[in-house]
Amino acid sequence: MKSCRALLPGFLFVFGLILSGRAQSPQTPALRRALARATADTTRVLLLADLSATFRYSRYDSVQHYASQGLELARRIGYAKGEGRCLSRLALLQAERGNLPQALRTDLRALDLHQAARDADGTARTLNQAGLLYQALDDHRPALAYYFRAKAIYDHSPHLDDSQLVSVLTNLGSTYVGRRQLDSAAYFLNQAYALTTRSRTIAQSYWGNPLPYVLRELGLLEAAKGRISLAINYYHRSARVALPENDRRSACRAYQYLAELYHERGQTDSSIFYARRALQTGQTLPYVVGVVRTSRLLADVFAARRQRDSTLKYLLIRQTAEDSLYNPQRIKQLDAIGFAEQQRLQQLEDERVEYAARLRNYALWGGLGVLALLVLGLGYYNRRQRLANAELQRLNAQVTHQSQELTTQRDRLAEMLQELRTAQQQLVLREKMASLGELMAGVAHEIQQPAQAIHNLAGVSEQLCQELRLELVKGEELQPADLELLDEMLLTLARHQAKISQHSQRAGSIVRGMVEYGGSQPAARQPTDLNALAEDYLRLTYHDMRAKQRNFHAALLPRLDPAVGTVEVVRHDLGRVLISLFANAFYAVQERRQQTDAATDDAAEYVPQVMLTTERTGPQQVRICVRDNGLGIPAEAQPHVFERFFSTKPADEGPGLGLALSRDIVHSLGGMLTLHTEPGAFTELVVTLPVPALAPLSA
User: Which of 418, 435, 452 is the last residue before a domain boundary?
Assistant: First the structure.
């Protein structure tokens, strides 16, 4: 089902392209039949205007064709109402192609004709179009003024086209979204959606079904409210509903909004997918404003990806589209003087006759002027060519110089990188030596126990040997009871010797571990009892902490999984990681102990605890967890705990390399080091290693 949903937008787009081959809305055939039957010229003018409107979002050349035919016929028969409506259709076409100043002038001429003919429907529609011109420039105040004027006409004339009232309501909601007045936007957009769903006349309107536009702007509202999933749903619904209407402009805008939404969310691939679809659809009209926005988005996305060819491609598309637009500042100026220009039209007509007379006089001088301009233009062109060649030579020399500088900088960076690697190795060695020195007290404590046991057992063994000699001196006088005693003494002596061997091996193992830990050469993986290794380093680190702070005590809670068994690891590398984790754990519980001692209220309740847990989590994976009930790590410090030279300890407590180096070591072993903490409660560091089991340990 999910795969079907994922393929649905692509299918709809292909189906839309098939429909676009027809380049007409569902109302077009009926209007063509009516035009073929019409005999009155006035009726033909109005039908031509309506027929051009059916192509408004699918084929602009057809809009131009039918509107121009209607305008010519209307002017020939002196039909002001039809002339105004055809001019309004041409203004719509000019606006869609990006010629906003010309569209405004045409709308103003059409408004005069509508008002002279008392055409309420035409007046309301043209006012709505004028508002759209200012909305395209994000100039919301005059846009709202035009929309409310249009809405007032529809409110007082309920018999007019419902689809155009829906358009006005939707434009009001869209403008309020742009002004971030979301409550007002929701009010008008909900009105538009309710009217669209309940109206029975929208399907017969030559302007088509406005539902794609309403759904798209509802999606824009939901996006502004942060409800992304609802916005995406509305955009997809808008694209689907636009297909039967062949409303390629609405489909283009829906894809454009989807692309912009995915771009804001960082979903670059989805953004590119819908932006390309929007651009392709917009170019078929061409819908210039949509082409500008989608090409700008695609250029920005590919620039961020450093794909220069694609970036240049879409920058050229954007530049070409923007060149067809006028300066927005000029639009605002035209708005201020627009109606004044209408008052000057008559004066201009009077001046036209005088201008025609003067034009004949200026024709000769104009021809000479053109020749002079051609000469000047050729001279200017030659001069620009020379300057361009000189600039190219200068830039070539500059590029060569910069290339040499970049080569030098590259060599310097390589040297600095080698120096940094050397410094890093020295820091690792220094950290290793420092931690090795800190462990000496714990090592001494650990070696002292087997050494003392060896000393005691050796004394007992010596005493047993003397007693054996005395018994053997008796010779033949030995009784069966004496023989049993001798046998028991020999067994005791054998047990003591075994214990002496065990403790000496224990001391030797500790010494070998320290030698491996202090070695600078890379070591190979060795079969290791992971539980014993982790517990040894836990106790070594604990005794080292005790040697530094006599009053320090903590509960050691080893929970060792026998299933871990014997695994192949690099002992001294893993040992360095464990020492760092244990040292941090003991430091944390000591700090909390000192704080609770200072508070005195909770001192008796707090018991420092350090828990060591080992676990085989899978056939090829083991897990070592070190958890303490210390102070935890503050939230603001958690993102930085694995950074080099970062530490929550005082400056004299260490350079802050422990956890950073530990993570590097674990990564070199193919594992992961992760952190779980709650400030004031606990800190848990988990080492996960991918190692196969060699053999499980016997209980």
Answer: 435
